[in-house]
């Protein structure tokens, strides 16, 4: 699995059936703020004048990959998502989920990965219901029509964009990106020495085709200031109300030079595998930062703040760090290890996993099996996604 691809645009239709909508099923909830949503975005922009802040080269070509058949095939082989009885009595009791997903943190919040054989069966493109989920709290109930993303801080023109503005006023990019939780395979690490993180298996990795608006174009539209004027970091803030730090939003940041680099393909994504985002994956809009860990890709995005300092979010500092082996949580709090910049995780590390033979699988050795080929299977992704 590759964590990013060349600087291309893959031409999926607005959705695989031409209309962006969520379908009702036997377990559909009439009070769901997302599942009853039926919207056909205008992707044409045919009557709009070119905006000098958002003009971008067209990277399309005749030989670009078409993933529509892979997505359709994967979806056709899935058992339907349901209102899982395990979510009864929680704030997520309205969210439909695939019952095969392995829950890693009990009933709530929802953190899960697909069984490895199922993940490998679907190959390069992961069906949305099998995409791993990392959440710190309840899924926000959101509405496309009411949602805005505020751009503020060190910009000349602070703006609050609606979802329709993001879709219709900017060119979109669409390409496959592999998302990886920084804790992928942590269970193996915890078997050697217990960390403060929970036990991810090797399924904390998934690949989808994402569509969204390039971040650098939005920041150009808003007139981001220069480094000389203090614009050094771009912070992202989500909508969740979380307990960390006595109560906070999920937030993080990246350096300005990353945010403004068109080659990094950083987007505000509103579609995944040809459909609007699912609730667990940040509906209606989230960050996608190819080559970075999933923890930097804020879901349910509400604010982008250009600042001099890094994000001051509790989760920016207390999540996604690798500290020296002698530093436990108590020592890290006492001596401020969380705030040492050399221990932050941003770019992905090189990783590879053998999935066949499976864990504890027994391979018989006899006169018959030694004459037969055995196919080893697995996945790999490269450092920083390139």
TrEMBL record:
Positions of the UniProt region annotated as Disordered: 24-60
Superkingdom to which the source organism belongs: Eukaryota
The keyword Oxidoreductase appears for this protein: yes
Bias (Polar residues): 33-49
Name of the protein in its database record: Oxidoreductase molybdopterin-binding domain-containing protein
GO biological process terms on file: oxoacid metabolic process
Organism: Manihot esculenta
SUPFAM superfamilies: Oxidoreductase molybdopterin-binding domain
């Amino acid at each position: 699995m590759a964590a990013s691809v060349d600087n291309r645009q893959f031409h999926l239709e607005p959705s695989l059936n031409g209309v962006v909508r969520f379908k009702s099923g036997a377990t559909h909830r009439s009070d769901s703020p997302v599942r009853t949503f039926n919207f056909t975005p205008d992707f044409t922009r045919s009557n709009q004048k070119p905006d000098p802040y958002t003009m971008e080269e067209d990277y399309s070509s005749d030989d670009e990959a078409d993933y529509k058949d892979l997505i359709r095939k994967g979806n056709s082989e899935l058992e339907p998502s349901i209102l899982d009885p395990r979510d009864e009595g929680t704030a997520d009791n309205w969210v439909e989920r695939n019952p095969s997903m392995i829950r890693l943190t009990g009933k709530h919040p929802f953190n899960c990965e697909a069984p490895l054989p199922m993940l490998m069966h679907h190959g390069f493109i992961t069906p949305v219901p099998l995409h791993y989920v990392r959440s710190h709290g309840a899924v926000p109930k959101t509405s496309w029509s009411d949602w805005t993303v505020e751009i503020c801080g060190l910009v000349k023109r602070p703006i609050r964009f609606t979802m329709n503005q993001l879709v219709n006023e900017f060119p979109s990019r669409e390409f496959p990106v592999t998302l990886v939780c920084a804790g992928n395979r942590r269970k193996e690490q915890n078997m050697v020495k217990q960390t403060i993180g929970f036990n991810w298996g090797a399924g904390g990795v998934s690949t989808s085709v994402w569509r969204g608006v390039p971040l650098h174009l939005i920041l150009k539209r808003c007139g981001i200031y220069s480094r000389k004027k203090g614009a050094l970091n771009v912070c992202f803030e989500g909508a969740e109300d979380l307990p960390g730090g006595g109560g906070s939003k999920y937030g993080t940041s990246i350096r300005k030079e990353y945010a403004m680099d068109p080659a990094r393909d950083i987007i505000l994504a509103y579609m995944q595998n040809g459909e609007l985002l699912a609730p667990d994956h940040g509906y209606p809009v989230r960050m996608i930062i190819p080559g970075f860990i999933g923890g930097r890709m804020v879901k349910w995005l509400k604010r982008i703040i250009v600042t001099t300092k890094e994000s001051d979010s509790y989760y920016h500092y207390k999540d996604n760090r690798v500290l020296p082996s002698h530093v436990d949580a108590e020592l890290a709090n006492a001596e401020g290890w969380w705030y040492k910049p050399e221990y932050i995780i941003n770019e992905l590390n090189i990783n590879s996993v053998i999935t066949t033979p499976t864990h504890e699988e027994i391979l018989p050795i006899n006169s018959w099996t030694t004459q037969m080929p055995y196919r080893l299977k697995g996945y790999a992704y490269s450092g920083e996604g390139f």
